[in-house]
Amino acid sequence: xxxxxxLSYFLILAAVMFFTGIYGFLTxxxxxxxxxxxxxxxxxxxxxxxxxxxxxxxxxxxxxFFSLFIITVAAAEAAxxxxxxxxxxxxxxxxxxxxxxxxxx
Length: 105
Fold this sequence. Notes:
This protein has helices at 7-27, 31-56, 62-92. By secondary structure, it is mostly helical. The protein has one domain (7-92): Orthogonal Bundle (Helix Hairpins). Helix 1 (7-27) runs antiparallel to helix 2 (31-56).
């Protein structure tokens, strides 16, 4: 085992981040804060992958590769989401989810 920070600290941090992201996703009405909540959820999963990889398989890199893949997908998702939010703002002049009720071309 590693003599550094215990695994439980990483898991508690990831759980707090995950449930904060879930709370933000379910309760917020602003599209930007919903996007930030999704990013928080993805980062909590990255912490779990890295911590479990370090403590269970210290000489292998599977957790690091999964985290790199998640970061890549999150960057692409953020770019597409911001482009959609900009187009929604141009059409409706708001980014509140409840005010955007029609999706026409």
